[in-house]
Amino acid sequence: MSIRKILPIFLVILILISGGSYYFGYHQGTQNPEQFIVRGITNIGDDDVTADFGIFWEVWKKIKDSYINGTEVTDEDLVYGATNGLVDSLGDHNSVFFPPDDSQKFNEDISGSFGGIGAEIGARNGRLVIVAPLKNSPAEAAGLQSGDIILKVDDNITGDLDVMEVVKLIRGSVGERVTLTIARDSWTTPRDVVIVREIIMVPTLDLNIEDGIAHIKLYAFNESAPYEFYKAILKAAGEDAQGIVLDLRNNPGGFLEVAVNIAGWFLDRGDIIVSEKFRSGDEEVFRASGNVSLEDAPLVILVNKGSASASEILAGALRDQNGTKLVGENTFGKGTVQQVFDLRDGSSVKLTIAHWLLPSGKEIDKEGIMPDFEVNLTEDDIMAGRDPQLDKAKEVLREEIAKKLNPDS
Fold first, then answer.
1. Which DSSP state fits 353?
2. What is the rounded (10 degree) CA torsion for 353, 160, 115, 347?
3. Of 251, 379, 392, 406, whose CB neighbour count within 10 A is largest?
4. Catalytic residue IDs
């Protein structure tokens, strides 16, 4: 079976779980002599389980017999609730159980077109944050920034919610308003941000060529990115661009194979791009296999705290292997691999199964990547239309171009 591997949120594999629930075949007979039978549940037969699942079935029966609103709760509700609790017990915001409706929404996200506010949401230090607002999205228009902490969605406090639960609250009918209570380091008190939901189309790439510098802004590592990148390089070559600023700011990631594809323009065949390290200690290594056409092209990469996952992999690999300079801010620190297991009833579970390792062996998760030239972009800069990060990247790139043209100087 082929497995398509994707990052934040996005790796797919199939697995069958019989019966749609968990029954491990024994209960606490010695501690509680009451006998009961649960029908319609299939035992998955895991001999390694050491916990006493009799407690689970005792609670199940007490709910069925005694809970005041028990007639309003279906068996399916109980199974999905228990399964959600099972995944929540991992304490990993990136591992999530999706009932069928939520699983469908997750697949809509992967397709690149959905209704909402247009912002990638993630977890950092136990809090839910804006990873990056998308270009021309309602979130961007409302002024949301990478690192903004989501305290409430309408009247719902987010402290005990996972990412998917917050996404569900933010989603809604197109044209309706949603209010996010946001905390930001530069604010003394939280503020309410009102946003009107729209149909969100995920952008891919913009190109601007000026003074011999090709500024390639890559918004996402989606299925269109390799071809759009190819077209941008052709146009840059046709206009005699001397160097490239690859702008990965506010790029939250996407498909791993797209990051590998783009890295292949700059790295020798066989160069390590990234490795997956599993809990067994085994590693799967991803190597460059592209055309290497840009191996000697002067390049500088822009990153910020909204650069996550595939963005961090590409930026880290090019710095480790080619010495490419990074300009901007410390990246987000999304360095784990998730796989989505589709279940038989249309539900699914997304589980963290590995860490990413850069060619240097560095782990990205939680720490991110510190740029070679740290430059902040303030709210005053944004309001005034200034971009000191891009200005610095161009300055560094001109120095790289000069080195290429005069290697002995």
1. E
2. 50
3. 251
4. 309, 320, 334
Nearest to 12 by CA among 345, 256, 340, 348: 340
Look up residue 363 and give its DSSP letter: B
Rounded CA-CA distance 324/346 in Å is: 44
Q: What is the pLDDT of residues 33-90, one digit of tens each?
A: 444 444 444 444 555 777 888 888 889 888 988 999 888 889 888 999 999 899 989 9
What predicted TM-score, i.e. pTM, was given to this entire model? 0.75
Same domain, 220 and 186: no
Q: How many CA atoms lie within 13 A of 130 on its CB side?
A: 29
96 with 350: CB under 8 angstroms? yes
Determine the residue type at 182.
I
Residues 295 and 173 both lie in one domain: no
**CB 378, CB 329: distance < 8 Å:** no
252 & 365 share domain: yes
Distance CA 64, CA 293 (A): 66
Same domain, 156 and 295: no
Neighbours of 240 (CB within 10 A): 9
| β-pair partners for 342 | 14, 348
Instruction: Domain of residue 71: give its range.
Output: 12-102
DSSP bridge partners of 337 = 354
Q: Report the alpha-carbon distance of residue 66 to residue 78 in Å, rounded.
A: 15
Q: Give residue-wise pLDDT tens across range 308-335.
A: 999 999 999 999 999 999 999 999 999 9
Rounded to whole angstroms, how far apart are CA atoms 227 and 231?
6
According to DSSP, the residues that pair with 208 across neighbouring strands are: 215
